[in-house]
Amino acid sequence: MVDALDEYLVQSLTEFDGTPLQSISKEGLQLGDEAKLEKLKEEMKPLTEWLQSVYGDRVEKVTVSNRIAQSPCVLVSGQFGWSANMERIMKAQTFANADEATWLHSKKTMEINPRHPIIKELAAKAAEADQEDKPAALVDLANLLYDSALLSSGFQMRDTADFSRRIQRVISSGLNIDPNAEVEPEQEDEHADKAADAEEKAAAPADEETSHDEL
């Protein structure tokens, strides 16, 4: 269902031939072994709680998913809120107001893939770090994980400037550069200064000769 009209139809068409329809882009998707999922949720509880504290009010909750195959995480909307596609359709309206119907922009749920190597390593790093004061680089990685899930799930990023600064800090860390290092001041061109001095010296006698001729 990729047509814009489908977003309106499925709000009323909740089942087909007796089979209830489920949106894979919204929370509450029932798929796979629920008992196994509950066990994974308990194992990943320290990571999900920490990620919840990092993201704050950007997400309603962070939980373990059984819908993801290859990605480390996804962002899904609330059961009764707008999907990412619906948000895009409404924002494209001619007289759309970003402040209208904000209650339909339900808080998103971050779902993580416990089998993905990024999630497993992030969980290990978070467990090793101080519980009260996580390293800034680790927090940046967690935020980048959110940013990547936001884009791959079809949502629009609002604070692109903060995203750009975060990318630059991660690149600096990867190159073993202090992220807070200042930009070097622009150096003056010595050759240009010497050329200007030479021109001034060459022009001085000509000015004096001109003044004598005038006298």
Give me a quick take on this structure:
The protein contains eight helices and five strands, in the order αββααββαβαααα. The chain has 215 residues and is mainly alpha-helical. It has a single domain (4-174), classed as Heat shock protein 90, C-terminal domain (Four Helix Bundle (Hemerythrin (Met), subunit A)), CATH 1.20.120.790.
Describe the structure.
There is one protein chain. By secondary structure, this protein is mainly alpha-helical. It has a single domain (4-174), classed as Four Helix Bundle (Hemerythrin (Met), subunit A) (Up-down Bundle). The protein is 48% helix and 9% strand. The protein is built from 8 helices and 5 strands; from the N terminus they run αββααββαβαααα. The chain has helices at residues 4-9, 34-43, 45-55, 84-91, 117-128, 136-152, 160-174, 190-214, and strands at 15-16, 19-20, 59-64, 73-76, 108-112. The chain has a 3-stranded mixed β-sheet. A hairpin with a 2-residue loop joins strand 1 (15-16) and strand 2 (19-20).
Helix content: 40-55%
CATH superfamily: Heat shock protein 90, C-terminal domain
Instruction: Write the CATH architecture name.
Output: Up-down Bundle
Our measurement of the CA-to-CA distance between the termini, rounded to an integer number of angstroms, reads 94 Å
The averaged pLDDT comes out at: 77
According to DSSP, the number of beta strands is: 5
The whole-angstrom Rg is 29 Å
**Which CATH class is shown?**
Mainly Alpha
**Low-confidence sequence ranges:** none
How much strand?
A: 5-15%
Tally of individual domains: 1
Secondary-structure-derived class: mainly alpha
Per CATH, what is the topology?
A: Four Helix Bundle (Hemerythrin (Met), subunit A)
State the order of secondary-structure elements, H for helix, E for strand.
HEEHHEEHEHHHH
Strand order, main sheet: write it out: 3-5-4
